[in-house]
Write a structure and sequence with these properties.
Number of helices: 3
Distance between the termini: 60 Å
Helix content: 10-25%
Strand content: over 45%
Strand order of the largest sheet: 2-3-4-5-10-9-8-7
Low-confidence stretches: 1-7, 9-42
Shape: globular
Largest sheet: 8 strands, antiparallel, barrel
């Protein structure tokens, strides 16, 4: 009889120890240090996002170009009738850079661009020009409506634009939004050299 009582006491003690351990583990995981080791939680019922591509870049996604990596800080989405393209503001590096993504004849093109101060404005733009030693020709000109998302350092709205292209994938874009004028100059980037990583991984590291 005493043996049965002793065995019952030991079983109860063991069960109590398991409960205490589980509560302690839960408390550790709920701590500041603990949650950092947990995978990020999604919104209940939310569909997992598909792997990002150049055409589906969002704020927080990472663009890797060789040894350089950039975080998408914001996006300007442009639309002109049936045509649409995007200009992503990139965070990373000493110089402000942008990544334009657009489709031409069904092929996705990506261009790295930087703001420039010495490009001509609309008053002196023609069908072609020479800029920084490159002969550029007018590719497109028109009016587009831009929608700003995230940190793009400018408002959206209706604007005039002109695109000039040249040898070596050179690209000059001039925009006139009334009180805001700017020019961006850069070059095409081989899409095969770019890697895209989702913002969820970037947020999980922080």
């Amino acid at each position: 009889m005493l043996l049965l009582i002793a065995l019952g006491v030991l079983a109860a003690a063991a069960a109590g120890s398991v409960v205490v351990y589980q509560r302690g583990a839960a408390a550790r995981l709920a701590s500041v240090d603990g949650t950092a080791r947990l995978p990020p939680k999604g919104v209940p019922g939310e569909r997992p996002r598909a792997e990002p591509t150049l055409e589906t870049l969002q704020q927080g996604d990472v663009v890797l170009d060789g040894d350089e990596d950039f975080v998408v800080a914001g996006t300007l989405q442009y639309r002109e009738e049936q045509d649409a393209w995007a200009l992503h503001a990139l965070d990373g590096g000493a110089v402000q850079r942008f990544l334009e993504v657009r489709s031409k004849a069904g092929v996705v093109q990506a261009s790295f661009l930087e703001p420039v101060e010495d490009a001509p404005l609309f008053g002196s733009l023609g069908q072609g020009l020479t800029y920084r030693g490159k002969a550029l020709t007018l590719e497109a000109r028109g009016d587009a409506r831009a929608t700003a998302l995230g940190e793009v350092q400018r408002a959206g709205g209706l604007l005039r634009y002109a695109r000039f292209t040249g040898p070596g994938g050179a690209l000059l874009i001039v925009e006139d939004a009334g009180h805001e004028r700017r020019a961006l100059f850069g070059h095409l980037a081989p899409t095969s050299s770019l890697s895209i990583y989702p913002g969820e991984l970037n947020r999980a590291r922080s």
